[in-house]
Amino acid sequence: MRGVAVFVNFVSKRIHPSTPKDAFETYGKVIDVFIAINNIKRRDMRSTFAFVSFSNLKEAMNAINGANNRKIDGFDIKVILDTNVSGSAYHHTVKDWVIYQEVPKSKGLQK
């Protein structure tokens, strides 16, 4: 199941893998979470990015409207729709990235 993904920018590199899943379940069924931990372009930055995949567009739009500009683990995140034309939520073949799926619970979003 591919679903519809949102791109989440300015995610802490120290984020627990379950945090995005728990935070975004408020807006709909989270199918998958991808966190780019070892991104070469962001090696010297404190933040990275993630993709969160939902079961449908309505849930993804709820996440964009509800989570954009909120704090997650102390970082102000930006959330937009993933417009990857290939139809997949994100690429699992990118070298040096870590992929997390179905992980335990954590803190979630804060205002």
TrEMBL record:
<dbReference type="Pfam" id="PF00076">
    <property type="entry name" value="RRM_1"/>
</dbReference>
<feature type="domain" description="RRM">
    <location>
        <begin position="4"/>
        <end position="84"/>
    </location>
</feature>
<dbReference type="InterPro" id="IPR035979">
    <property type="entry name" value="RBD_domain_sf"/>
</dbReference>
<dbReference type="InterPro" id="IPR000504">
    <property type="entry name" value="RRM_dom"/>
</dbReference>
<keyword id="KW-0694">RNA-binding</keyword>
<dbReference type="InterPro" id="IPR012677">
    <property type="entry name" value="Nucleotide-bd_a/b_plait_sf"/>
</dbReference>
<protein>
    <recommendedName>
        <fullName>RRM domain-containing protein</fullName>
    </recommendedName>
</protein>
